[in-house]
Design brief:
By secondary structure, the chain is α/β, with parallel strands linked by helices. The chain has helices at residues 7-15, 20-29, 39-48, 52-55, 60-70, 91-99, 114-117, 128-135; strands at residues 2-5, 34-38, 74-76, 104-106, 119-120, 123-126. The chain is built from eight helices and six strands. The longest helix is centred in the middle third of the chain and has 11 residues, at 60-70.
């Protein structure tokens, strides 16, 4: 099974050792499924982790370990981002799900319309809680 994790899920896993995002991250690290990521997402993680509001809650060393771990995931080098999204910043997540032939895209972002969309091609778009209930 292949899964795309929104960057907000990855950051949530680092911020709190409790809850669904961390359980999902640990399950991936235990090889329960494959994570699909991209150079674009890795760049976003590096960039966003330097935002002042995130620097206050993210430890740089843990972000570095996560980025290194993600380099061992299915890393898409090139994305054809011709997917429409309510938030243009989320188009690359949808493109990752399509290009990476993902089964799930897990996001906590209710404002951007990803969850309302429900799916893209074969990938279901779900919350961390739904993913944990159905998969873990």
């Amino acid at each position: 099974m292949r899964v795309v994790l929104d960057t907000n899920i990855l950051f949530s896993a680092l911020i709190s050792p409790h809850g669904a995002p961390n359980a999902i991250y640990r399950a991936w690290r235990a090889a329960h499924f494959e994570v699909v990521t991209s150079r674009m997402q890795l760049d976003e993680i590096r960039r966003a982790s330097r935002y002042p509001k995130l620097q206050a809650v993210l430890q740089p060393a843990k972000v570095g370990v996560m980025v290194n771990n993600l380099q061992r995931a299915v890393v898409l080098e090139h994305l054809n981002i011709e997917v429409e999204a309510n938030d243009p910043n989320d188009a690359f997540l949808l493109a990752m799900a399509v290009t990476g032939d993902a089964d799930y895209l897990v996001t906590g972002d209710r404002r951007a319309g990803l969850l309302q969309r429900g799916h893209i091609e074969r990938a279901r778009i779900v919350t961390p809680a739904v993913f944990c209930a159905e998969v873990l």
